[in-house]
Amino acid sequence: AWASYMTNSPTLIVMVGLPARGKTYVSKKLTRYLNWIGVPTRVFNLGVYRREAVKSYKSYDFFRHDNKEAMEIRKQCALVALEDVKAYLLEECGQIAVRLFSTKRTCGGFVSGLSWFSKHVSLPSSQVFFVESVCDDPEVIAANILEVKVSSPDYPERNRENVMDDFLKRIECYKVTYQPLDPDQYDKDLSFIKVINVGQRFLVNRVQDYIQSKIVYYLMNIHVQPRTIYLCRHGESEYNLVGKIGGDSGLSPRGKQFAQALKKFIEEQEIVELKVWTSQLKRTIQTAESLGVTYEQWKILNEIDAGVCEEMTYAEIEAKYPDEFALRDQEKYLYRYPGGESYQDLVQRLEPVIMELERQGNVLVISHQAVMRCLLAYFLDKSADELPYLRCPLHTILKLTPVAYGCKVETITLNVEAVNTHRDKPTLNSSHLPTSQSPGRMRRSSLTPRASAAVEKRPRHHSVGSSPPGPPGP
Amino acid sequence: ARELTQNPLQKTWEPYDNGLPAGHSAQRGVCMTNCPTLIVMVGLPARGKTYISKKLTRYLNWIGVPTKEFNVGQYRRDLVKKYKSFEFFLPDNEEGLKIRKQCALAALNDVRQYLSDENGHVAVFDATNTTRERRETIYKFGEENGYKTFFVESVCVDPEVIAANIVQVKLGSPDYVDCSNDEATEDFMKRIECYKNSYETLDETLDKDLSYIKIMDVGRSYLVNRVMDHIQSRIVYYLMNIHVTPRSIYLCRHGESELNLKGRIGGDPGLSVRGKEFAKSLAQFINEQNIKDLKVWTSQMKRTIQTAEALGVPYEQWKVLNEIDAGVCEEMTYEEIQENYPLEFALRDQDKYRYRYPKGESYEDLVQRLEPVIMELERQENVLVICHQAVMRCLLAYFLDKPAEQLPYLKCPLHTVLKLTPVAYGCKVESIFLNVEAVNTHRDKPENVDISRPPEEALVTVPAHQ
């Protein structure tokens, strides 16, 4: 990861808002983004806890504010959830817990709840960041209910109308005691962002640090307009044919055929206002050229830099740099080619692409194997372990459509033969590793800081650097 | 499909038709702006409008978006040679109102020329613009000309902040060159009063269809409405990350390296003997400066890390702070580059900012790579950045508002710390040489940049080395 978190205190993000305001949607999306950029994050959804406590949901009556028994249950759930949050942040070294908070709160009640929490988790209040979603557009709310509530475990058998009806009554129960965040008086010292009408307007108060700033920027760039993202690689290249990695070769004859097929496919899809992005390497540009439409070249979409191994075949690499070759198979995500990059570096490099993809509508990204794996991992919420082994074959398009809380993927093979460039993780044992390298040095998330004399707990401003990983390497 | 040709300077692939460059392809610079953007500042006097205008303009130009600010007050000063008193700004001063409107229109005219005729992408219109009527006029102007309009309002009621602003930038204004500080302050406060009665702040309901950001209390909170596109989103992000807390930024290079001694560029060498001495001097210097909560950043190359190690404090390594990648020329001397790649060497001298080494980077690429560093530097307070020559030039150009042509020739010698302190609308620079000798690595632009030049003329500005 590229954020120095070992000496930073964790953050609790608290979602606030009436039901059907997109809290779960935002929680999941934000969590996916933060995990992708390397900040360990987890969602704690009170609704899930409640469903465990109360096996079968009967009706909206459960949520009436004068239903004492239900209130007791919901309070208990909140406490259990908080305990889990505490465990995650303190014991499991999570960095951010996103908590779906029920909207029922009185000023006093919440503040005392929060100070209880602060005492138990030793989380200064500046490390709590609220994300409130406010929406008064009835169409948006109705659409939300249809999109995600109708298929909720709370409503297994009901028909649409009943669900809509019950859910709207549920919302009414909350409205009675809902107190929106108040930046002018009661809540002026809290750190929060208020998202109004699905991103039309934002109120941002007291952003404390780097991570809160990134969260705000992300929330301000996402939207919910329906659209489709197409990911594919360049057509088969001359180097692909001979098994060389990297370089800047042109398309092979089959690669050119693919470009033609891609053009036909895009035309058939009849996509409204499609943007086309390529890297600055010849093979993606050649592929885009065949489409006959305007495209944008991004240097940051270039393939992973293999450093000294550029333009070699895997066999040549194994022969010339056997230790490097073995190390890469041990920890493909973190492994950096000498004089080159790692997948982890690639993710950092690609972050502006992801941000811009979030802003855009329909986009076709013509990129490369490693790059496409990183982008795909973001959309499909794949972990760092899985990312370098995601299948992104040549001449295949992945069509991604956001749906409910996730992303639908369609794989379209364009019927033009190509070599297979996918290398699975071999079943090596660690005896292949030279004894000076122990797997323990390869860490999963943030790099461990150098053991310096005193690491004082200062008020934390996160930043984007990383602390040194230990004694300088070979 | 059209053929591709590689641009020799930037190494980018461009399509061509019958030998001529063709359309359909665009470079994604950091920002693609489709239609020009007009940024309109809003706020009472002494709310930081000019500060924000200048800073935003500097940032946008640095990331490659041609931007210019238009300060209506400056137009007024040019027209009304001598400022008399706040009475010029009284709401019932017909003469004053006439002149002020004239200045606003003249400025808008220049805006139009810049955006429509001179290929500017963003214009920042810096004036109070405190009435809805005035803002409507400007919005209509934008619409007529095909510009997107984005308002930036600064709201502040804290008397201490306002007083501090007055001291920082108003007392030294040409308007008050003949006044004592007390006289100037008194007059300026009355000037602010002239605007207050007619001030219509951007309203959530009345202005709900406009795109704007409202900055409250110097960044304590923000209201953001209807961000329309990428550039507005970047502007909002930038404005939300800057602050005015006093602090200093220290920039320096790693200590002299083994390759520096040999006149070789790039690579990942360790420090020379003198380089290690510098590291120790740097530690001493930092101690003596007694800096509160200093953050130390390095690249991920050995020479900066070795330098930081000598400081004995925690530091963070950033890969994006690594030196410019010289591609096939890595670890060569300039003499070797001239011998092996004379064309490349000449191209570089012709346009050092845009020139990309084969399989390497350009200064232009470096700026894009460094943008997150700048953003984080804006968020932070006291920071020491230990980096490299090209990297330091890019960072320095941002702080000192140097254009692309000058950037690659900024002087950033080894063993010299540049201490940057924000002051008024700019940045004070102190250069501190830490008294440890080092080779000179600065190569000036030679007179002859022609590809047919003889080697001696190419190498005439190469500094001495082993």
Automatic annotation (TrEMBL), chain A:
For the keyword Iron, the answer is: no
- Species of origin reads Alectura lathami
Q: What is the name of this protein?
A: 6-phosphofructo-2-kinase/fructose-2,6-bisphosphatase 2
Q: Which residues form the active site?
A: H234, E303
- Sorted alphabetically, which InterPro entries does this protein's record hold? 6Pfruct_kin, 6Phosfructo_kin, His_Pase_superF_clade-1, His_PPase_superfam, P-loop_NTPase, PG/BPGM_mutase_AS
Q: What is the lineage of its organism?
A: Eukaryota, Metazoa, Chordata, Craniata, Vertebrata
Q: Where is the region Disordered?
A: 423-474
The segment(s) forming the 6-phosphofructo-2-kinase domain are 3-226
Q: Transferase among the record's keywords?
A: yes
Identify its protein family.
Answer: In the C-terminal section; belongs to the phosphoglycerate mutase family.
What does the entry list under GO cellular component? cytosol
Please give the subunit comment from the record. Homodimer. Forms a heterodimer with PFKFB3.
Domain of life, per UniProt, equals: Eukaryota
TrEMBL record, chain B:
Where do the catalytic residues lie? H254 (tele-phosphohistidine intermediate), E323 (proton donor/acceptor)
Q: Which InterPro entries does the record match to this protein?
A: 6Pfruct_kin, 6Phosfructo_kin, His_Pase_superF_clade-1, His_PPase_superfam, P-loop_NTPase, PG/BPGM_mutase_AS
- The record lists the membrane-crossing segments as none
Q: Name one Pfam family in it.
A: 6PF2K
Locate the residues binding substrate: R253, H254, G255, E256, S257, E258, L259, N260, R303
Keyword annotations of the record: ATP-binding, Hydrolase, Kinase, Multifunctional enzyme, Nucleotide-binding, Phosphoprotein, Transferase
Location of the 6-phosphofructo-2-kinase domain: 32-246
GO BP terms: namely: fructose 2,6-bisphosphate metabolic process; fructose metabolic process
What would you give as a GO molecular function for this chain, any one? fructose-2,6-bisphosphate 2-phosphatase activity
Stretches of the chain forming a coiled coil according to its record: none
Q: Which GO terms describe its cellular component?
A: cytosol
Keyword Hydrolase: yes or no? yes
Q: Which domain of life is it from?
A: Eukaryota
Which family does the similarity line name? In the C-terminal section; belongs to the phosphoglycerate mutase family.
Task: Please report the name of this protein according to its UniProt entry.
Answer: F264 bisphosphatase
